[in-house]
Structure formats: structure tokens, C-alpha cells
Design a protein that fits this description.
With 424 residues, the protein is α/β, with parallel strands linked by helices. It folds into two domains: 220 residues, Rossmann fold (3-Layer(aba) Sandwich), CATH 3.40.50.1480; 155 residues, NAD(P)-binding Rossmann-like Domain (Rossmann fold, 3-Layer(aba) Sandwich). 44% of the residues lie in helices and 16% in strands. The strands form two sheets. Strands 9-8-7-10-11-14-13-12 form an eight-stranded mixed sheet, with helices on both faces. A seven-stranded parallel sheet has the order 3-2-1-4-5-6-15, with helices on both faces. β1, α4 and β2 form a beta-alpha-beta unit. α1 packs across α4, α4 runs parallel beside α16 and α9 packs across α10. The site of nicotinamide-adenine-dinucleotide has 28 residues, from α8, α9 and α10.
């Protein structure tokens, strides 16, 4: 399918993002602003870029993952007026080069997927970051890294952690990741899941989404966790919880979704069941020690996106998509409808940052939002949920004045139950 057709298809499934320029006609807070973005170069990203162009912004883009870049899409973006695409070679050196090249030129606002671009701009004060007004970070891993930078005094602007939005977590992390990881696993392995033992490392939002879908297809789920609360959550959902060193002995499939590193390493792999399949759904390819596998023995391609490694013990271990984020590296990432909610949230957060900056700096001299990692403002979350419900034709009750009054006496107004004060 041609890139142009995939973009048209994405546009059809992204009414929230497509409608943003109509709901916020330019000139507005983003008119004339330069947005630097490190994003997966997919058709959905084109739809976001079109909306931001419609709001009057210019964009400079690099790719969030060398394996997720779709060449036709990158070429399409390059042809758009007001859009620059900076791409290095299709490996991590090329990725780093492109991030640094975009960072060196500075920006008014940033959209990031993993925090490398925000951190590179922050570390580059001689260049453009003095004009940086704020940023949006798309992943929980990125938000965690920014939190660490903030604690070390290295974050000078407000950054909205998009993953902390209720709508994004539901659509993207839970349902989107769950479905698209399964899509990637089925495409690459053709595994019959019924009756198999599937180990899911990490029972956060992504892990829960993956485990739920694997279970629905008949797999027997074992969760590994380091958080007592998350382990309890899994246990109360009826799932077995065991340490990885035990769990991997029976595993037919292991999927990591922790956001951490070294979750499956040599010590686990030498205990693994012969023929175990490993896949990573976490943001970085550090959850499974693919390097050790590569060093330990020869590999043979089994199917597209699936390599088999023979360990010195004679065991076979199969690795999906080289241990990179599996739904992006071996499938199409999230369905467009999922990205509609995430990208609508990002666009509204950018408008918020631009408006707060314009209002406060020009009229009051105060910064609108404090520097640091921030949750998505509740009114934006509510707006996105309302728009998504509207698109789905779902109607809900509106709290009466008496109900609002009653709820206020118990500690505050009902979540998102406003009569429209914050309607977009
Ligand atoms: N593939 C995708 O499309 C996609 C989408 C969103 C997020 N992500 C990535 O997936 C990862 C998880 O995201 P999330 O939103 O579920 O995060 P989360 O914080 O909600 O959950 C992560 C869970 O992993 C657990 N964990 C941490 N280290 C562990 C270890 N060594 N062993 C077992 N469990 C461990 C934590 O206790 C936590 O419960 C992140 O890297 C995130 O960036 C991927």
C-alpha cells in the first residue's frame, strides 16, 4: 500500500486530531512557533503534523526509532511546506546524530518519545533552548528519565507527561499496546497461543493490556514483577506471579514490558525452556540481553522478524525483532484510532503551553506552568474524553447542580462532570 493511501486511511480514523485546527483557528498560540519533534515516522504522525501546520506551527522532525521509520512517510513529510525531516542512518548512531542535529537548532516547543530530544536541548544551552517554552513527553520511560533530570536540576521548562493522561493510558498503553503487541507476535511467530505458557514481565498498564489479550487467546499467564502493588494486582486478577528465574523454565513465550533493563539475561536464558520465544514491548531494547544471545551462538532466520539462536547447551532461543519494541519494529504500531487520542492530547497540551507562555510572559511576566514533569491538565483530559465519546456516539449523564453541590461537600467536584466550563 502506498504511503499516500496509508496516510488517507489514518486521517479517516483520526477525527479528533483532524478537527483541531477547525476548533482552534489560526492565528493562535502556535502560530509561527517552531516545534521540534522526535516521533515514529508513521502515517498517524503525518496527521498530527498536518494539524499543527493548520495551527500555524513549523516543524523539525527526527525519528524516534530507526526500525519504525516508514520511508514513504518520511518522503511525504519532507515534501510538506514548513516541515523539515532530519534522518541519520537506520541504526542507533544515526538516530543519535539526528536527535543532536535537531536539538542543536533549538525550538519553541518539543514533542518527544523517550526524552532524548528534550534532554539534548536542555543540555545545549548555548543553542536554542533559551527560547524553549515547554514540551510533551509521550512515554512513561521518558517521563521517568525527565523526573530524574528534574531532581538533578536539569529540567528548566514544563513538560507534560502525556502518559499520565487517563485517556492516553486507556487508549494507548492499555488497549493499543495490548492489541498491537499481539498483532506483532502473531505476524512474526504464527504461534498458537492456546494452552501455551506466556510470561509477561511487568504488570503496569502495558503489561496488563498484553496479558489480558494473551489470556483471551487461551495462553496461561505468569507475571513477573518487582512492585508489591502491581504483583498484588496481577494476583487478584487471577494470574500466577513468580520470579523470572522460575517462570522462564516453563515459558513458551516471554514478553517484557517493564521500562527497565536486564529483565531477561544470561542467568535466565540458561534456565529457559528449549524453543522459548522472547519479545520486548518496552520502549528501549535493553529489557532482553540480545547482545549476550548474539555472542553466545550462531543465529538463523526462522520467519521475517524472528531469529533463532543456538546456545552452547544445545537449547534454542527465538528472539522477535532483535529485542526492539515489538509492535513498532514488527507490526504497524498502534491503530490510528489510538494515536488519535494520544496526538489530540499532545496538540491540546502544546496549545496550552503556547497560550500560557504568551499570556503570562507578555501580560504578567509570570511563567504559566512550573518547570518540571507535569500531569496533563484535567480540563484537557476531560475534553479529549468528551471528544472521543462524542465520536463514538456515546452519551453520558450531566450532574445536576444539586449533585455537584453534594459531591463538593465530600471533597471536590466530580471528575470531568463540569457543565462545560472547560469545553474545548
Ligand atoms: N510498545 C508500545 O507501544 C508502548 C506503549 C506505551 C509504553 N511503552 C513502554 O512500555 C514500558 C512499560 O510501560 P507502562 O506504561 O506499562 O509502565 P508502568 O510503569 O505502568 O509499568 C511497568 C511495570 O513494570 C514493573 N517492573 C519494573 N522493573 C521490573 C522488572 N525488572 N521485572 C519485572 N517487573 C518490573 C514495574 O513495577 C511496573 O509495574 C515502558 O518502557 C514504556 O515506555 C510501550
Amino acid at each position: 500500500m502506498e504511503a499516500i493511501d496509508r496516510i488517507a486511511s489514518a486521517r479517516r480514523d483520526m477525527p479528533l486530531v483532524v478537527g483541531i485546527p477547525t476548533r482552534h483557528p489560526a492565528p493562535g498560540p502556535l502560530t509561527g512557533r517552531l516545534i521540534a519533534a522526535c516521533l515514529h515516522l508513521t502515517p498517524e504522525t503525518v496527521v498530527l503534523v498536518e494539524a499543527l501546520r493548520g495551527l500555524g506551527a513549523r516543524l523539525r522532525l527526527c525519528a524516534a526509532n530507526p526500525l519504525s521509520t516508514q520511508d514513504g512517510v518520511a518522503a511525504h513529510l519532507r515534501r510538506m511546506p514548513g516541515v523539515e525531516v532530519v534522518l541519520g542512518t537506520a541504526d542507533w548512531d544515526g538516530y543519535r546524530w539526528a536527535v543532536d542535529a535537531v536539538a542543536a537548532q533549538g525550538a519553541d516547543l518539543v514533542i518527544d518519545d523517550g526524552a532524548d530530544l528534550i534532554l539534548a536541548i536542555e543540555a545545549n544551552p548555548a543553542d536554542g533552548n533559551r527560547r524553549l517554552m515547554g514540551a510533551c513527553e509521550n512515554t512513561s520511560t521518558g517521563a521517568l528519565r525527565l523526573q530524574t533530570a528534574q531532581e538533578a536540576g536539569g529540567l528548566t521548562v514544563p513538560v507534560f507527561a502525556i502518559t499520565r493522561s487517563a485517556a492516553k493510558r486507556l487508549y494507548d498503553d492499555l488497549h493499543g499496546t495490548g492489541q498491537s503487541v499481539l498483532d506483532a507476535l502473531l505476524r512474526t511467530t504464527n504461534l498458537l497461543l492456546a494452552g501455551r505458557v506466556a510470561v509477561v514481565a511487568g504488570y503496569g498498564t502495558c503489561g496488563r493490556g498484553i496479558a489480558t489479550r494473551l489470556r483471551a487467546l487461551g495462553a496461561r499467564i505468569v507475571v513477573t514483577e518487582i512492585s508489591p502493588q502491581a504483583a498484588l494486582d496481577a494476583s487478584l486478577d487471577g494470574l500466577a506471579v513468580r520470579p523470572m528465574i522460575d517462570a522462564i523454565r516453563d515459558a513458551d513465550l516471554v514478553v517484557t514490558a517493564t521500562g527497565s533493563r536486564d529483565v531477561v539475561t544470561e542467568q535466565h536464558l540458561i534456565q529457559a525452556k528449549d524453543g522459548v520465544i522472547l519479545a520486548n514491548a518496552g520502549h528501549f531494547d535493553v529489557e532482553i540481553d540480545a547482545e549476550w544471545l548474539r555472542k553466545s551462538g550462531p543465529s538463523t532466520p526462522v520467519r521475517p522478524g524472528l531469529e533463532s539462536y543456538s546456545l552452547p547447551s544445545g537449547q534454542e532461543v527465538l528472539l522477535v525483532a532483535e529485542g526492539r519494541v515489538v509492535n513498532l519494529a514488527a507490526a504497524e504500531g498502534h491503530p490510528s484510532a489510538v494515536m488519535d487520542v494520544t496526538f489530540a492530547t499532545i496538540a491540546l497540551c502544546l496549545l496550552e503551553l503556547g497560550a500560557a507562555h504568551t499570556t503570562t510572559v507578555e501580560h504578567t511576566g509570570r511563567q504559566g506552568h512550573p518547570a518540571g514533569v507535569l500531569s496533563v491538565p484535567e480540563h484537557i483530559d476531560t475534553t479529549v474524553a468528551r471528544l472521543a465519546l462524542g465520536q463514538a456516539g456515546v452519551r453520558l449523564d450531566i450532574a445536576t447542580t444539586a449533585q455537584q453541590e453534594y459531591l463538593r461537600t465530600w471533597g471536590g467536584p466530580a471528575r470531568g462532570a463540569s457543565t462545560g466550563d472547560h469545553a474545548e
